[in-house]
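Slide 14.
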Amino acid sequence: MAGTYGLVNLISSFGFTARWRHQVTRDLPLNANSHVVDLMSGMNELCRSLQAHAPKTLRLTAIDFAPEMVRRARNDWRFRVTTCLQDALTWEFQPASADVVISSFGLKTFDQNQQLQLARQVAGLLRPGGTFSFVEISVPQARGLRVLYLFYLNRIIPWVGRLFLGNPANYRMLGVYTQQFGNCKYFAECLRQQRMQVTEVSDFFGCATGVRGYKLDD
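Slide 15: predicted structure.
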């Protein structure tokens, strides 16, 4: 999917994914010495959202386990970006080395055990007082919207994928993962178990949900 992911993602979401990424990075407490870690970074799309307000001396470490995504990732931003081929769940990092942890649209592929494991990774990465911000497409609660939304994910997006990729099978998994994931509520509870202050967020009637917050002092 890497060759068409960015374009299909933007077109099929009518630009909402770009908006939701901007919300992930909005109001983050960034300073000249901040170290940001982007988990499940894809092709470093969140860097575009950071570009407008991040200090030039900011450091960002991008983590993704898909080799083609990492190969295609853009690294020429106004701040320093290091992209690493790593699995976010097993990556060995220096504890308390991040001021900010961010992520967009990677959570839906994780089952509940993996979400708990990821929460532990985030807690280990962040220094006390460090902040985090995640977003994920989700299943809205309102029945009418839920039916339409899932029809769009399961039927229309694979068709768009066929236009660009010639094979809709990979894009069809988007609906499968989203239905199994539901929303960010369980991940929020996992973060709270790791001594995190968590605020749950929702956008466009629950079509996207997220978590924001910070690590409590020891």
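Speaker note: The beta strands are 35-39, 59-64, 80-85, 98-104, 126-137, 196-203, 208-215.
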